[in-house]
Specification:
heterodimer; A: alpha/beta; Rossmann fold; four-stranded antiparallel sheet; B: mainly alpha; two-stranded antiparallel sheet
């Protein structure tokens, strides 16, 4: 039990009359990689917001290393060791790539990786002096992953890390994450099935705010019900 | 060292050299004119430290200038207080910082940013001016307080008296140079980089572990403290304090100085303040009512044509010539 990092129990959330999430459970163990998938509007991003403490669930609880994190200020959550990559690339456009990573390191309680190593990890070494606002879309996404790594997280939450990427960039991103697997836990929310296939990990399928299936990806992929949902037959 | 930093230090060195040479060529009256302009330059630099680094406009910065001025006046006019000049300056800085801390705490931690912050600080300035007018038993009401003595203190048996034109000029010029250099080194280092990040995307900066409201608050308090220092210096030199010193007009003027000089450059606003006050005196001598009209026009032109201020003319010309050369 001691290696459980993040535990969401019976999480539900209502926005007015809309039950956005219902009775969701997720356990992330230390250094584990898992994916949350589902069609548009399934509640993936909402669930991720609950997991990072930005949204307080109307029922159930989210505990990180035993602490209830709902409603904590953002910077406190970051210092507990939860890093988050936002869906829209949100780097600091008026700072250079290098300064972006520096700002990320300065926020960390005890940064380990030097900026040079971070640049290498996200394949941006030769763009260090470029203003982040001038990077290509895919590179911005990678820079953001680099910034999330800089705070030496225990848990990295990625909201659609490959949104808007070319197929090659998507695969490169998956390989980047596979290299990092084993250093800390990663939860990725995605709807690009190629990416999830490349990661080939524990997968939770959401549909209309509920758990549809969960298990290793190859089981999920062959599941008739999941196929139906993804193809829009139900 | 990056080219931008080198250029800044170069311009700074030129300005310091000019300030050193000036007393040799200028008469006493001219010295006091530039001295007073430099005090307002310090005030402009204090606003720029906050506005230029955070992108949040404070439209009531004169409140802190006025608070500093009134505290200095009240302390130095009270015969019972020893070391009045030094205590007065400390009190002025602390008083302005204290008011900024209280107002800033509720605004920053309450999530007030952008235009809403500007509006609230605008109201704050108006309230301060009203308080200065209405609380006449302390502040002297509309006519203010007069007869404020020049800065004088004893250091280890040595009596320092800054009532002379030259000595007061040297004090002010040195204070401005040291403060601007200090603010610059703070704002180009780690502190300033994180502030730029917060300006770009505050939520993201917080998600990386930065306490954004606290950092904004500290910057605001520091900015107000320097505005308070400028106010204290001003009333000692002018010998009087009046409600106008915390008023809306001064708050607007300081914004124009910063905008003309170049937001975020710290040195530009000092030059902007000197330049515009010089222009104001010249133009007002033709016709006093011409000035506000021209000031407004200059502001509009700056915003449209030179949004980065007068210091950016050089950079603009350079890029223009580079573009020409490439085109040929």
């Amino acid at each position: 039990m001691s290696d459980v990092l993040l535990q969401a129990e019976n999480v539900g959330i209502r926005f007015g009359g809309l039950q956005a999430l219902e009775a969701l459970n997720l356990t992330v163990r230390d250094k584990e990689l898992c994916c949350i998938i589902g069609p548009n509007g399934a509640g993936k991003s909402t669930f991720l917001n609950v997991l990072t403490g930005t949204l307080r669930p109307t029922s159930g609880s989210v505990r990180f290393l035993g602490h209830d994190i709902a409603g904590l200020p953002l910077h406190r959550i970051a210092r507990l060791g939860i890093a988050r990559k936002f869906q829209i690339p949100s780097v600091f456009p008026s700072l250079s790539v290098e300064d972006n990573l520096k700002v990320a390191r300065w926020g960390a309680p005890s940064p380990v990786r030097p900026v040079g190593e971070l640049l290498e990890l996200v394949a941006l070494t030769n763009r260090a002096a470029t203003l982040a606002g001038e990077l290509a879309h895919g590179q911005k996404q990678w820079l953001e992953i680099g910034m999330a790594l800089a705070i030496e997280p225990r848990l990295l939450l990625l909201d659609e890390p490959t949104a808007g990427m070319t197929p090659q960039e998507t695969l490169a991103t998956a390989q980047m994450l596979l290299r990092l697997k084993g250093e800390f836990s990663i939860v990725a929310v995605e709807h690009d099935i190629r990416f999830v296939r490349a990661l080939n990990c524990e997968t939770l399928v959401l549909h209309q705010g509920r758990r549809l299936r969960s298990g290793p990806f190859h089981d999920i992929e062959t599941d008739e019900m999941v196929r139906d949902v993804y193809l829009g037959r139900r | 060292m990056i080219a931008r930093d080198r250029n800044w230090l170069l311009i700074f060195a030129v300005c310091v050299a000019l300030a050193v040479v000036y007393p040799f060529v200028a008469g006493g009256y001219q010295l006091t004119v530039i001295r007073d302009a430099l005090i307002f330059g310090l005030f402009a630099a204090s606003l720029d430290f906050f506005w230029g680094r955070t992108g949040i406009l404070c439209f009531g910065h004169a409140a802190f200038f006025g608070i500093g001025g009134y505290i200095m006046a009240l302390v130095t006019l009270n015969d019972a207080i020893p070391f009045a000049s030094l205590l007065g300056i400390m009190g002025a800085v602390a008083g302005a910082a204290f008011v900024a801390a209280i107002i800033g705490y509720f605004l920053f931690f309450g999530g007030i940013r952008g235009s809403y912050f500007t509006i609230v600080t605008l109201a704050m300035g108006v309230i301060c001016q009203q308080a200065a007018v209405s609380w006449s038993s302390v502040t002297g009401g509309d006519s203010g307080l007069i007869g404020i003595p020049p800065i004088a203190f004893d250091v280890g048996g040595l009596h320092v008296d800054l009532s002379q034109d030259l000595s007061s000029y040297i004090l002010v010029a040195a204070t401005v140079a040291v403060t601007v250099l200090a603010l610059w080194s703070v704002s180009r280092g780690r502190w300033g980089t994180v502030l730029t990040a917060i300006q770009d995307n505050e939520v993201r900066a917080a998600a990386l572990g930065h306490n954004a409201p606290l950092r904004l608050l500290v910057t605001f308090v520091l900015s107000a403290a320097i505005a308070g220092l400028a106010g204290a210096l001003y009333v000692c030199m002018a010998g009087l304090v009046a409600p106008d010193l915390s008023g809306l007009l001064l708050s607007t003027e300081v914004i124009v100085w910063v905008a003309v000089g170049g937001r975020g450059t710290l040195l530009g606003p000092v030059l902007g303040a000197i330049f515009i006050q010089r222009a104001q005196q010249t133009i007002s001598s033709f016709n006093p009512s011409l000035w506000p009209l021209l000031l407004g026009c200059v502001f509009v032109i700056i915003v449209f044509v030179l949004p980065d201020g007068i210091l950016s003319i050089y950079a603009r010309l350079k890029s223009l010539f580079k573009g020409r050369r490439r085109a040929q």
